[in-house]
Amino acid sequence: MIFSWLKRRRRKRILASPFPADWLAHLNRNVVQYRLLTPPEQAKLRQRVQVFVAEKNWLGCGGLVVDDEMKVTIAAQACLLVLGIDYEYHYDQIQSVLIYPDTYLHPPGDRDGLVHNGYPVYGEAWHRGPIVLSWKNTQGLADEEGGNLVFHEFAHHLDDLDGGMDGTPPLEHGQERQWERVVEKEYHRLVRASRQGRATLLNEYGASSRAEFFAVATECFFERPVVLRERHPELYAILRDFYRQDPASWPWGRPL
């Protein structure tokens, strides 16, 4: 109770400061979804960005100097995921965000029971630990249709909230059966298409595991929602119900 009171007091103090004008410029330039929100939704997202930026430790790696543009861009995309759902706890376990300038090399060691000598990585979400991102790929993946590194890694974090990255985030009672039915069908559909070399809307990386499928589906849900709803209506529906947002209804065709 005392911790909750102190947290609310601290956040109230953070929000007492006006949203910086240069931060708003970063939002408008780097986060297209921000421009599609209603004014009340934009105000809500700005508040969450202020809190997220203030509460996390931002660490530059590989010689990178972290600036406000990086913080605001990453925070806005992360907070967009939970804009429609309970905000109080979803990112509280994340203490730090580590940012590399470019793709980085994962150190040698064991992964999934296999010994490796290191491999290139865009980003990572550690269990109850930091989010690690490549700034270049945070920007560059947006050029790929449906790609968004921040959405991907923070989706992994949401997936992990119930104790493991298994492709099923914490669900409300009654959602489990529908989620399992739809995800299993869509996951195996992507696996088959990937094996056959057929083009897919969802990135074929999602065929590597159910955890990756959820992260890839989340990217597509927020980046290409209209076509996702057209081609995968059941998948779109369960993601809409989980995130409590309907991005396919946003004014994507409006001049920005």
In the CATH classification, which architecture applies? 3-Layer(aba) Sandwich
Span between termini? 44 Å
Structural class call reads alpha/beta
Q: What is the overall silhouette? A: globular
CATH superfamily: Collagenase (Catalytic Domain)
Describe the protein's topology:
Elements (H helix, E strand, L loop, with lengths): L1 H14 L5 H10 L1 H5 L2 H17 L1 E4 L7 H14 L14 E5 L3 E3 L2 E3 L2 E3 L2 E3 L1 E3 L5 E4 H6 L8 H12 L15 H20 L14 H14 L1 H7 L1 H11 L13
Parallel strand pairs: 1-2, 2-8
Antiparallel strand pairs: 3-6, 4-5, 7-8
Helix pairs in contact: 2-5, 4-5, 5-7, 7-9, 9-10, 10-11
Give the tags:
256 residues, alpha/beta, Collagenase (Catalytic Domain), four-stranded mixed beta sheet, two-stranded antiparallel sheet, 11 helices, 11% strand
How would you portray this structure in words?
The chain has helices spanning 2-15, 21-30, 32-36, 39-55, 68-81, 135-140, 149-160, 176-195, 210-223, 225-231, 233-243, and strands spanning 57-60, 96-100, 104-106, 109-111, 114-116, 119-121, 123-125, 131-134. With 256 residues, the protein is of the alpha/beta class. It has one domain: Collagenase (Catalytic Domain). The strands form three sheets. It has a four-stranded mixed sheet with strand order 1-2-8-7. A two-stranded antiparallel ribbon has the order 3-6. A two-stranded antiparallel ribbon has the order 4-5. Helix 5 (68-81) links the parallel strand 1 and strand 2. Helix 2 packs across helix 5 (68-81), helix 5 (68-81) crosses helix 7 (149-160) and helix 10 (225-231) packs across helix 11 (233-243). The longest helix is centred in the C-terminal third of the chain and has 20 residues, at 176-195. The radius of gyration is 18 Å and the shape is globular.
